[in-house]
Amino acid sequence: MNRQTKRLAAILGLALASACVTALAQPAAGPQSGTVFRNTVTGEVLDTAEGKAGGRDTPGVKAFFESGKNLYIDDKSCLRNGESLFATSCSGCHGHLAEGKLGPGLNDNYWTYPANTEDTGLFSTIFGGANGMMGPHNENLTPDEMLQVIAWIRHLYTGPAQDAVWLNAEQKKAYKPFKEGETFPQDVKGQCKPLEN
Ligand code: HEC
């Protein structure tokens, strides 16, 4: 091989390798066991049994593990909890409104990892982390709490409705970009019980 052919081969190899990593990073549905979650960066399968105890047997988590659908989206009782969990675990790096700070913004339509436009991808990133300062959060949040945080992140979205992959057609029609100032009463009805602490 001459020098140029070698360079081309190297570039092709790189492109192929990164295509493989991206393919691996996409969550794939397993045959029987519902959704398989994979590390956003390495593609390694995540064990959802690992980490903070509890929050694995709620109807919301069971449905999510089975179908990948997050039932907490737009549920006010879960948004109330998600807002508070996001404030403690995420906003220090991602900003109060997920507008971006040390970590990237999570309220627009740009994603470093496009898998995060699916709730299964976002769950994998929270559970298993990504690069650098974005460590795994499965030690301080249960899967149920992660679904509440996800509902809140989706609620904070201010980008165009057509790019909100996580919304169905009906939700897209009803979509209004997030505006500050909304409050949720402690006793608002829904699937999520008030947080204990
Ligand atoms: C210590 C700082 C820090 C904390 C705390 C933190 N993050 Fe991150 N986060 C980052 C950094 C830095 C990145 C960029 C990493 C990368 O690109 O791989 C990131 C990346 C991400 C991404 C990928 C965004 C994209 O564009 O694809 C998501 C999603 C995310 N964080 C969600 C969260 C959530 C949810 C929480 C709270 C449970 C959280 N992060 C807590 C620093 C943090």
UniProtKB/TrEMBL annotation:
The keyword Electron transport appears for this protein: yes
One Pfam family it belongs to: Cytochrome_CBB3
Coiled coil start-end: none
Post-translational modification: Binds 1 heme c group covalently per subunit.
Location relative to the cell: Periplasm
UniProt keyword Repeat, yes or no: no
Main location as per UniProt: periplasm
GO molecular function terms attached to this record: electron transfer activity; heme binding; iron ion binding
One term under GO cellular component: periplasmic space
Signal peptide, first to last residue: 1-25
Cytochrome c domain boundaries: 77-157
GO biological process annotation, one example: methanol metabolic process
Binding site for heme c: C90, C93, H94
Keyword annotations from UniProtKB, A to Z: Electron transport, Heme, Iron, Metal-binding, Methanol utilization, Periplasm, Signal, Transport
Its biological purpose: Electron acceptor for MDH. Acts in methanol oxidation.
Protein name: Cytochrome c-L
Organism of provenance: Methylobacterium soli
Gene field: moxG
